[in-house]
Amino acid sequence: MTWKAIGHSAVGTSHTANEKGCDDAVQYSVVKSGLTGETMICCASDGAGSAIYASLAADMATKYMADALAGLAEAGHRLVEADIYALAEELYDLLEGEALKQEVELNEFSCTLLGCYVTGGRAIFFQIGDGAIVRNDGAGNYAYLWWPHNGEYQNTTSFVVDDRNLQNLRVAILEEQVDEVAIFTDGLQLLALNTESETVHQPFFTDLFKYLRMADEADKVAVLNRKLAEYLDSRVINDRTDDDKTLFLATRLQP
Amino acid sequence: MDEYISFEQIPFGSDNFADNPEPRCPCVLLLDTSVSMGGMPIQQLNEGVRTFRQELLQDQLATKRVEVAVVTFGPVTIESDFHTVPNFHPRELDTTGDTPMGAAITMGIDMVARRKKEYKEHGISYYKPWIILITDGAPTDDWAQAARLIRQGEDAKSFAFFAIGVEGASMDILKQISTRAPLKLKGLMFREFFMWLSASMKMVSAKSPGSAVNLLPPSGWSEL
After folding, report:
1. ipTM reported for the complex, 2 dp
2. DSSP 8-state assignment for residue A18
3. What's this model's pTM, rounded to 2 decimal places?
4. CB distance B7–A220 less than 8 Å?
5. B163-180 per-position pLDDT tens digit
6. Main-chain phi, psi angles of A185, to 5 degrees
7. pLDDT above 60 for A42
8. How confident is the model at residue A218 (pLDDT cuts 50, 70, 90)?
9. Residues with Cβ < 8 Å from A182, sequence gap 6 or more?
C-alpha cells in the first residue's frame, strides 16, 4: 500500500492576538524511486516565539531538510546517521548565513527540527528541541521516539542554532517496517502526550488515523488534508492551546 | 460519487485529549504594609491587587496557569499561599509594623523553591517564577543575605525578581538588592502597575519559546 500523508501548521490564538504570523512550518513528500521504492519524508519546525526571524527560520529548516532528503531518496541513497548530521550542519550554516545577512544575532533564527525518512523495512527519525515524533510500533500502540526536550521551564527548549556541534540532535534508525508516523510541534504536546505518565495519549492518534487509513484514493486524502487544517484551527483545539501547532500524519495501513 | 460525498462529511479530528494539568506560572507579591503605607497608599495598593486579579481572570489561559501568592511585611506574613487566580481572594490589607524587607524576600524565594518542588513531584510543567517587591521605605532588617539570594537565583535562572519603589522608597538600596533595575512608581498608580503586571503575566503564560523574560515596556506607571 502506498503512503497517505496529510500535514498542516496553524497559527495559535496568542499569535493572532499579537498580530504575529505562524512560526511553525511543515513540508512533506512521498518520493517514488525505481531504486528504493517509496520513501516518505517529512520535516517540521517550530520557530521560537521570542526570535525575530522565527517564521523564516522554520520555513528554511523544513524546506532545506525536506528537499535535501527528497533528493537523496530520488537518487536511491541509503540514508545513514552521518547524512542527518551533515544536513543539519548545512542547515546550521544556512541559518547562520541568513542571520549575518540580516545583521542580527544567530538566536533570532532559533527553531526546532523534527523529521522522518521512512522506506520499506527501514526508518530514520531525527529531532532537535521539543515537539514529538510518534510511530505505530507494529503492535497497534503509538510510541514516541523521544520525550520532548524542555528545559526546566515550560517555555524553554533547544534549537538548531544553539550548538554548532549539534549536541542536541537525536537520530534513530529503526531496521523495521514502520507503517504509521505522526509528527507534531509543542503546541499539541499537552493534548497528545500524558505528561505525568510520560506516555502517548493513544485515543488521540487512534481517532486521527482511523479516517486516514480509510482513504483509498488521492481525492479522499486531499479532503482529509483540508479537514486537518480546519481541525487545527477549530475551537476544540484552540480552547486547549494558544500556541502555533503543526500536525503531520502518514499511514500506509488500511482499515 | 456517493462514497466521495460521504467522505466529505466524515467527522475528522479528535476531541479525546490527554488530561494534563495546566503548566503553572507562579508569581509572588511581596507587599510592604509598614505603617508608612497608611492611608491612600494602602488603599490604592488594595485596589491594585483586586485589579490584578480581575485582569488575569479576563484571560482564559492566565486564569488556569497563573498562581499568585502574597507575602506582607512587617511583620513577615504569608497572607495567601499559591492559588490559581479564581481561588485567589485577596483580603483588604492593613498597615502594621516596620519594614523587614530582607526577611520577606527570603520568604518569597523559599516559597518559590518549595512550589517548584511540588510541581516536579506532580509532573506539572511550569514557567519561570516571578517575585515582585513593592515598598515605600528602606529595609529595617539585614538585607545583604536577601540580595545575595536574589543574585544567585537570577544567575541560576531560578526566578525573576522585580523591585517597585513607591514614593519614599530608598531606590539606592533597592538597586543594591535587585539585579534588575528597580522601577519607581509614579504617584500611586498601583492600578496601572498591576494592569501592566497582569498583561506581562498573560504574555508569559501564553507559550513563547526562548528563555528571555518577556516584559511589556513599563509605560505609564513608572518614573524614568
Report:
1. 0.88
2. T
3. 0.82
4. yes
5. 988 888 888 999 999 998
6. -90, 175
7. yes
8. very high
9. A133, A134, A135, A142, A192, A205, A208, A209, A247, A248, A249, A250
Q: Which of residues 139-158 of A touch B (CB under 8 A)?
A: 150-157
| Separation CA B117–CA A201 (nearest Å) | 26
Residue B116: all three cell numbers together: 517548584
Type of residue at A85: Y
Please judge whether B125 and A154 are an interchain contact, meaning their C-beta atoms are less than 8 angstroms apart.
Answer: yes
With 50 as the cut, is the pLDDT of residue B208 above it? Answer: no
A/B interface, count of CB pairs below 8 Å: 120
Tell me which H or E stretch contains A108: none
Q: Which residue has the higher pLDDT, B196 or B96?
A: B96
- Residue A219, H or E segment: helix A218-232
Question: Amino acid identity of B188?
Answer: L
The reply to whether residue A243 touches residue B214, judged by beta carbons under 8 angstroms, is no
| Residues across chain A | 255
Cβ proximity of A185 and A246 under 8 Å:
yes
- Indicate left, alpha or beta for A76 from its phi (over 0: left) and psi (-120 to 50: alpha): left
Question: Which residue bears the cell 532537535?
Answer: A128
User: Could you say which residues from 61 to 90 on chain A have a Cβ atom under 8 Å away from some Cβ of chain B?
Assistant: none
For the beta carbon of residue A49, count every other beta carbon within 10 angstroms: 24
Owner of C-alpha cell 486524502 = A221
